[in-house]
# Entry
Amino acid sequence: QESRTFEVSLPLGPESHQAVGVHKFGEELERLSEGRLTIRPQYDNALGAEREVVEGMGFGLIDMGITSTGPMGGFVNDFLLFDLPYIFTTPEAAYGFLDGEHGDALAAKLESEAGVKILGWMENGFRHNTNNVRPLNGPEDLAGIRHRTQESRVQVDTWTALGANASPMAWTEVFTALQQGVMDSQENPVPTIYDVKFYDVQRYLNLTKHVYSPAPLMMGAQLFNSLSPEDQALVMEAAAIAVPVQREASQRMEQELIDELERLGMTVTRPDLEPFRERVQPVIEQWKDTVGAELVEAAQASGS
Amino acid sequence: MTAILFGVLLVLLFAGVPVAFALGLAAIVTIWQGELMPMLIVPQEMIRSINSFPLLAIPFFILAGNLMQAGGISERLVLFSRTLVGSMTGGLAMVAIVTSAFFAAISGSGAATTAAVGAILIPAMVAQGYSPAYAAANQAASGALGVIIPPSIPLILFAISANQSVGDMFAAGFLPGFVVVGGLLVFAWLHALRHPVDHDEPSSLGDILRAGRKAILALLMPGLILGGIYGGIVTPTEAAVIAVVYSLIVGVVIYRELPLRALPAILRDSAITSAVVLSIIATAGLYGRIILTLQVPAVISEFVIGAIDSAWLFIILVNVLLLFVGMFLEAAAAILIFTPILLPIALSFGIHPVHFGIIMVVNLAMGMFTPPVGLNLFIASALSRTSIARLSIAVLPFVALMLVLLMIISFVPWLSLALTGR
Amino acid sequence: MQAVLSALVRGVDGVNWLIGWLMAALMAVMTVLISWQVFARYVMGDSLTFSEEVARFSTVWLTMLGAAYAYRYGALIAVELLAGLLGRRMAIVLKIVVALASAAFALILLRHGLAITERVLPQTAPSTRVSMAWLYAAMPAGAAMILLNALAVIADSLRPQPEAQP
Ligand code: NA
Ligand code: NA
# Structure
């Protein structure tokens, strides 16, 4: 039986919620394969930004990776679903959707279009707004605020609909832009907000919960298919064990870190989400056909 | 594998293959020899390395520098500096230093600084009795300020390779830049005491004000660029574009020294100069990826950490290494190749990444005027009609001076970190 | 033979002339886009979403085409120690060897650049939603130009005339 070490790309560092999942996967894989199959994590985007990592796995240049679903909309329109605001209301709704037929169908599409196999749906969790201007009690409080989005048309449309002056900006520039005031506002999951020390440059944490962000654990499809059927099964089993561990850690860290961010001086606001949800309906309508109306409706229905 | 990666590069560089191609070829040979991964990695990594927004600042600063030179901005800076320090002992050498510092706060490149200021001041210095070799050496060293004082292309490159913010790296360059300016000024004064030369007549307050008024638009430019960045109005890349627009307006509309018909050629030449730097970045990115795949940093780091037990010793070692590298290799290439290798080790010694970046950039700025290979050296040699051989001897005192300043900057992290607010 | 070499050099330099102005145009486009981006954010309070991506793609094209142009006129940074130590004839041989190495590099870039462009054809760019092939095609295009210019450099070395002028 062959021995192998898989290089795994992570956007965040060794203490992150992503690393919890990747480490667990590695441990289980090593245990199940009796030491034959191991992993070597590469933290902080050392192998490239998320888009290049997804592309690289498809080309056989990178073994494995965990990324947000952000770059996948470039390969399969259906993945723009996860950029759409207020689609999933609870983590359980998202888990139900992802772990069932819809998640499988999305994974199958990514495999055929990008050559990337999703092993399991880990997560970044819900994304929230932080800014330096005022607490957000409703979308009207976003007026005139310069807000940074990821590179995504859907996200720009969302924040424009909410009333902000929204523009995309490269991730490496965000901290300084917020510190100097080129940008007032950004949005990310709580563990990321804590990990990159946004509490040093942002006063308000607003739990807007506007997007649920999955973080699939992936392997290049070519590489996966080159493994023996037994090893393929081991990889899938290790991922299946690691997914709930990662999700649990992500949810626990979110709760703990909200308190910690408050202790570090951020003003935490829990706005009524209904007005936000209403404001973004036109964005959902606008993108529904591109993403696939059935898929959007199925996702919206997953919580109820 | 690692031996092939470094060996092939050395052979190709020595043979005179352009640095950008040599880095790519060395990576390709290594991938092929070791069957490391599919060759698609070659175009993917090259494109990834240059498809980056912060990098856009490089063509813009190069364009701004060219527009300033063509639009009469550098001449006015020189005239104003002359009224300020021209009458002191060693006055004109000081003018070269002060003007270079001003110019450096607008342009991102050491070569642009040397060319723009040296074209005016080297002949002027020779006319006042400075030896051409000394005038050229002083200018080559002052030109290195271009990349220590922000904005700066090497600072941008380090920020990108090290995942640091460009804004932080710029803030960190200020005080070290002024330490170097101070050192060079003292040096110019001491030199003039030993080798007396003419200096300008003292300027009246009226002269200073008149020259100041003429230069005011040029003098406002550093404030506009750096104020734009630190006042929270623009990102460094956008600031570079503002520098372009500003020099265009000043040169075309206000000074009227820049005819519109000259613009296309300036745009084209700036694009070519940018491509020279950016193409090295593209293949250095690929080369760096192979370094990572072969786990070179981990291996070297294990060795270094086993052999050395203090951060101080490590910093000295890094300085010796980069000094040697800088003798032969262009700063941009050196930063892109050595950051991924050295930074993880520096971090494990508890050295702040921003401080480490400044150490690297100051060191490689020296490389711009250390013989045998140095861009500033070549430009100053051409401007002064001094042979590279003579100039190589004339710069040695400046190399010694910079070594002292480099030690100060290396061992006083405060100089680099005080203004970053981190 | 000399006539063929001359025609080759003239042809390549004609293409270079065009590419020189194309690069000037790319530089102008980048400047306008990013100035507009700042203006839109502050004056119109409504940020641009596509400017950054278009400017980045332009930079990649500028780099690849510019590398070929700069190579032709000896503007690429190189360590030119060895040539200075050799005699005239050996220096010419070395120049041809260097050009052959550059041509080999260009061939590899061309081949794999075409392959990657084909593969990313269905992929869309995040902000403009155009095909990613618009980005990656810069690689084979630049590689083809480097290859042509390497041939022109070799042709130049085989002719009695001195250096080419831009
Ligand atoms: Na500078
Ligand atoms: Na040097």
In short: Chain B touches chain C through 60 residues (CB under 8 Å). Chain B has a mean pLDDT of 88. Residues 2-420 of chain B form one domain. Residues B 104, 107-108, 146, 149-152 surround sodium ion (ligand 1) (CB under 6 Å).
